[in-house]
Design brief:
The structure is a homodimer.
Chain A (H helix, E strand, L loop, with lengths): L10 H29 L5 H11 L6 H12 L7 H23 L3 E2 L2 E2 L1 H4 L2 H48 L7 H26 L4 H28 L2 H4 L5 H4 L5 H9 L2 H12 L1 H4 L3 H10 L2 H19 L9 H16 L3
Chain lengths: ~350, ~350
């Protein structure tokens, strides 16, 4: 099964991709640092410390990178694009601060979560600060239309979380329940990132639509792989213990598929485990075997592969020679989503 | 001492003010209801329920009313002003949701706080939703410039909360420490409300500046009276037990003044109480007497009166006969801040 999460692209491909995106990643991090520097003196020192702690934490800068690439592919390659791009990282990190409070998380990327290191109040407030700043930057750099797309994504994220809260005790979900939650939690922001990137870059309607669709498919594949890693990942790579979703009773695609397909006896077995939170950790390996028996992992993986293919096909309209480089990177990122093991 | 918080304007004045603002308050509430209605179907039912619960809770709608009045005084009296105005209530309520989580509050306006009625996750997320929606509305109705003022206020609010966290164990504060916290927590949003109102209403630079200054002075006076009520208020009117600020070790103006002015013996007495959280509730009456001894209450009250006078004087530039009505209401609201007992 671990083959399901092993690197599928050859490692040369990944190394090449990393090399290509490195300068942009560097510029994104520089932009965040210079933004925080511009605030020192104006902002409370403790707030700045919390922001530094939470923002510079080994994040992949996946979202701002997508914004930069979408803008460039749509025609504009100025330096201000990096300022616009950091808004997406800010919003993402704001939601992580709040999620960690909500989930009572201990760690984030191997370090104590902000709510542990600085307390609940600091985590909520610093999240609010990043949220406000992200919207201000989007308004400033992308205007009212960009802001509208952005805030639709934010509202959708909250809505997705509520849906998840409400679905918490429902162990018989359909695939569309899963995709509704995923759309709110992950997809809308990634789709907004590529769409606003395109808008900023001066893309026409079909550019914008194509890049939005790319983001939608990519975001969905990204979340499926994330959920697979929660069952099959290697803590050495992910920095996370496997099985957290099961322990929290979170119904993700592999388990939903298994529950749908299992015969009465196996379904009763799974339901008993889900109904008793204290048994979940202990029975993790049994659940993994059961999901595997009903192809929950392989079919989730296939779904992610399908979505990545759709994401790539959305890029076909970008045929100009000057678009080749950025298109290749976006294609590479889509394939990386399938290859990632952390 | 209770005279300090008794109604200073004659009750006819207040009744007249209430009658004048009633139609606007009604329109503001209608606009909020119609906004939430427009979301039903799109939003999770539980999220909508939380929003209804938290928004329709006997709020005075002070902030949106100020926005409407500032817009009208600056020249525009259309119906869309109410849509713009509700953003200020949304942001205010978003901060209440989060504050109640941070403070572990049990109740808000006599009902269980959102975090008690629906849980921490719901309170954080619904706050995030209102925050996002408020910024989207401001961007849509007021454009990028309004958004900039608005998000400066939001950032300042977070900054003020951090300052308060950091000052928590400092019992020897200066007046300016108090005003720095108050500016972040209350004043910036009220000043943004009247300034954005004026901007929306097409006010010129001096209109905008005057209305911003009005908001600054009013907000400051408002907070001072709020802090006085925490010592001297009557629970029958305020719905709150007195003494919470002292119990939480919060240094507000009356206590700061007393600490500054007290002789060594009295200061040591107050410090001992502040240093031992378990003694604070028990010693509340002693602290009240001590603050009174050093004129902490009367001088705080005088400061608020001075600020209200300054707020009123900012309105003097609005001399046109068609401005008289709204100007009179804004003057009445400023005086009401001094007269309020809840």
């Amino acid at each position: 099964m671990s083959a399901l999460i092993e690197k599928r692209t050859d490692s040369t491909g990944n190394a090449e991709l990393k090399k290509r995106i490195a300068p942009d990643i560097l510029r994104i991090e520089e932009e965040m640092r210079s933004d925080l520097s511009s605030l020192s003196g104006q902002l409370d020192a403790l707030l700045l410390e919390v922001l530094h702690y939470g923002l510079f934490n080994g994040g992949k800068r996946f979202r701002p990178l997508l914004a930069v690439l979408a803008a460039r592919l749509s025609g504009k390659a100025d330096e201000d694009v990096f300022r616009m791009a950091i808004a997406f990282e800010y919003l993402h990190v704001a939601t992580l601060f709040h999620d960690d409070v909500i989930d009572g998380a201990e760690t984030r990327r191997g370090k104590p979560a902000v709510c542990r290191a600085y307390g609940t109040a600091a985590a909520i407030l610093a999240g609010d600060f990043l949220h406000a700043r992200s919207m201000a930057i989007i308004g400033e750099m992308g205007g009212v239309e960009a802001l509208k797309i952005f805030s639709r994504a934010t509202s959708g994220m909250v809505d997705g979380e509520f849906l998840q809260l409400r679905n918490a005790a429902n162990f018989n979900q359909a695939e569309q329940d899963y995709f509704a939650v995923v759309t709110g939690k992950t997809v809308l922001l990634i789709a907004a990132t590529t769409e606003i990137g395109s808008l900023y870059g001066g893309g026409n309607d079909s550019n914008r639509q194509a890049l939005r669709n790319y983001g939608t498919n990519l975001g969905c594949a990204f979340q499926i792989i994330d959920d697979l890693l929660d069952y099959l990942g290697d803590q050495k790579n992910t920095g996370k213990v496997v099985g957290n979703d099961l322990v929290e009773g979170k119904m993700t695609l592999p388990l939903i598929l298994a529950m749908q397909r299992a015969g009465q006896k196996d379904r009763d077995f799974l339901t008993r485990i889900l109904q008793r939170p204290d048994t979940r950790r202990k029975c993790f390996r049994d659940v993994v075997d059961m999901i595997d028996k009903y192809d929950g992992f392989t079919d989730s993986r296939s779904k992610a592969e399908e979505l990545v293919k759709e994401a790539e096909s959305e890029l076909e309209i970008f045929q100009l020679s000057e678009q080749r480089k950025d298109r290749t990177v976006l294609e590479g990122l889509a394939r990386y989503v399938l290859a990632r093991n952390k």
